Amino acid sequence: MVMSKRNPVDELLQRIADEYDELPRQLQGVATYIEQHRANIMVQRINEVADGCGVHASAVVRFAQRFGYSGYSEMQTVFRSAYTEAVTPARSYQQRIRKVIADESAPMTTAQMALRFIDASRAGLDELAGEFDSKAFDEAVDLLVKAENIYVIAVRRTFGIASYIAYALQHTEKRVHLVSGLGGMFREQIRSIGKNDVLIAISFPPYGKETLYCARVAHQHKAKVLAVTDSALGPLARDASALLKVNEGSAFAFRALTSTICLCQALFVALAYKLELKVEETSHPGEYDD
Length: 290
What we know:
290 residues; two-stranded antiparallel ribbon
């Protein structure tokens, strides 16, 4: 079986998250900046990063060395190789396919490519199960149980997941709103969110600015934000009341969506189950009393 490897940037950010509380205050500032600007690190000079963090350049060097790099330039190379394609998707799709052809010793059959993607998806699901946070999942379901309105936002490659979860939630008694941005109306569609509502926001690097905007508005309006994303240090996690972390498998530099859709389906089923339990308890009071 061909197993997918986690993106090296994801691996680094996970290490940073694991050690974040132990970092000195200045290095915590560097960690937060790198997490929030990961798509730009590959083109930023060390002084630009230092200015953004409000620290001296030497602190950025110490940060890189803390995580095993000789200095900032070596750490930057990791971001450059991992995210050049993500920042320029229209051009990089063809580049990624060409790289697949160049990397293989012989042309692959379409079936072999399909099996590689299946393996990548399976690896992502294995990781999702292995790192599943039951407490966080319970918190997420409880938020939805208590919500008067549920708003859902995701853009570009994750929009299909938002569309699905909004469709599934329509089968409950909850009032559900898909923030589609049709006609560019993200602001208009999210402006009515209130303190008794929940926004499900789904985004991965490079983060959708529309999703981040809606999360900020929800937070400002005292609504709860349920973030589905890859890191607790990311910009989407900043305004989250509950966080579900998921890292997808990848093949040929293309990330799968299998783990995210699985997690969202599980979220809907768990919510529907709890809502039905409440109905049963209301409909049959005292049925199990002695």
